[in-house]
Request: fold
Amino acid sequence: MNTNHATVLLRNATLGVGLIGGLFLGAQAAEAKTVHVTFTAKETTLQIDNKGTEYPAWTFDGAIPGKVVRVTQGDTVDFKLINPPTNKNSHSIDFHAAEVDVLDEFAPVKPGDTKHFKFVAKRAGVFMYHCGAPTMAQHIARGMYGIIIVDPKGGYTKAFPKPDREYVLIQSQFFPNADDKEAMIENRGWTGSLINGKIFHYDPVHDPNASLALVSKPGERVRIYFVNANINMPVAFHPIAGIWDRVYINGNPKNTLYDVQTYNVAVAEADAFDIVSPADRSTNNAIVDHTMSAAMRGAITVLMNSPDADPKLGKGDNILLR
Ligand SMILES: [Cu+2]
Reply:
């Protein structure tokens, strides 16, 4: 029996149960669902470091990065982009998890207009999304990007163990002159590395104003969903005082590497990284872009592994710390 036949039989069986008594809702949970997602483009002012330096950002929903979109492989994303009439620029959406028409679904949306389309998230993994309106480098550099996680329809397995905690980290280059598109394209004058929208966001070691860090308990498996939203620079992703237990290229368990010190993440690539700290002691890791020009500009994130780790962090809606 091939997979399609099995799927049809499973659907019929589920339908039959539903018709008979509306029981066994659990059996229907594996069915693909439709997830409604709405983004509103907001041209606004945001703080790009822990001491409150303001920057004229362009955003999805008023934050860098935009919100985490999470679906299961096979789900339909019913998406709406609102560009309010108060904005000065056209904006767009480019979901790397979508296989559609760049000239249709991803076309620029003028201020006052709305774009609505659907796509099926057919492939498991982690994917970047971003605004692709011209000049794209500027729209990304000013903050219009985020992550969509497409969990495998097969769920967790031995090859893809359930993590104890999950965190999203999205790195991007900060260009202080928000209007200098040429500098962004030619990689001139960038002064900061933003991690989830802020320089040294989770690094109280290098920045006394930093109040957040990633946490776990000793021995826990921590899965990091990492997006390289830089304009021009790859990222040498490395956990200081640790080793990546597994790297899932593009976040897909079909593409797993083991025991990796540093993994090179291309521009616009997203991957998932597992780290498991020693179980018998408290430790700290510094998760860095080992490219020194980026690390010293802000691309360092502290992961504290201790028994008193906040049980709420790295779980549910707390995977992208703001
Ligand atoms: Cu835009």
In short: Helices lie at 3-21, 25-28, 136-141, 181-186, 292-295. Confidence is low (pLDDT under 50) at residues 1-28.
